[in-house]
């Protein structure tokens, strides 16, 4: 579990306001409807809110990125600015609308995480956004259905699989145009648990 309040960060190319450089926590932290206590976002236009209360990134991707980016020093958690680094819950394995127990809280997957320029700037890789999109290793966002205390080491335990069974991977493929199929797009739009901003984006594409 990783949190950070926004701060000014200076990279090789720019200075900006962000909560990307999150710090791992060992003590219990309360998860509110929109955020972990002590966490925040720098850009409230594109980040945060009820549909993006928690950012999740699979642990398994770290080794792949270290190899593919030819890094001498492995990336350290949370290099992708995630609140939660999870094992066994890859984009192929989880679906939009799936519900999980997380400590005392109950959370639900809403959409794939959309990589932004902050990621590229902090990792000093201008090509990183494209690489994340092309590989589908985006991670994903959660909304909070029930607030509660979360402690480091708490597992995300599946308690309800969404009947539509549209995985985060398939959602990524639709979102970024790798799948151009009106029926599949409409099927995703009709998942009421989908984040509203993504639904609006897909509806505009259909027009």
From TrEMBL:
It comes from the Bacteria. Residues 23-159 form the MOSC domain. Gene3D superfamilies: PK beta-barrel domain-like (2.40.33.20). InterPro entries: Benzoxazolinone_Detox_Enz (IPR052353), MoCF_Sase_C (IPR005302), Pyrv_Knase-like_insert_dom_sf (IPR011037), Tri_helical_YiiM-like (IPR005163). Pfam families: MOSC, YiiM_3-alpha. SUPFAM superfamilies: PK beta-barrel domain-like. This is MOSC domain-containing protein.
């Amino acid at each position: 579990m990783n949190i950070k309040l926004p701060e000014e960060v200076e990279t090789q190319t720019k200075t900006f306001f962000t909560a990307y450089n999150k710090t791992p926590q060992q003590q219990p932290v309360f998860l509110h409807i929109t955020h972990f206590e002590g966490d925040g976002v720098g850009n409230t236009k594109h980040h945060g809110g009820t549909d993006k209360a928690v950012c999740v990134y699979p642990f398994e991707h770290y080794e792949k990125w270290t190899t593919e980016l030819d890094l001498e020093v492995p990336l350290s958690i949370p290099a992708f600015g995630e609140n939660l680094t999870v094992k066994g819950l890859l984009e192929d394995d989880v679906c939009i609308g799936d519900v999980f127990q997380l400590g005392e809280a109950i959370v639900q997957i809403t959409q794939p995480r959309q990589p932004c320029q902050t990621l590229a700037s902090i990792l000093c890789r201008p090509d990183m956004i494209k690489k994340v999109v092309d590989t589908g290793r985006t991670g994903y966002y959660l909304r909070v259905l029930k607030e509660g205390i979360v402690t480091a080491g708490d597992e995300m335990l599946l308690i309800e699989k969404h009947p539509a069974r549209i995985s985060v991977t398939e959602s990524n493929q639709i979102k970024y145009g790798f799948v151009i199929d009106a029926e599949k797009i409409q099927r995703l739009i009709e998942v009421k648990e989908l984040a509203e901003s993504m639904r609006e984006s897909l509806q505009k594409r259909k027009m």
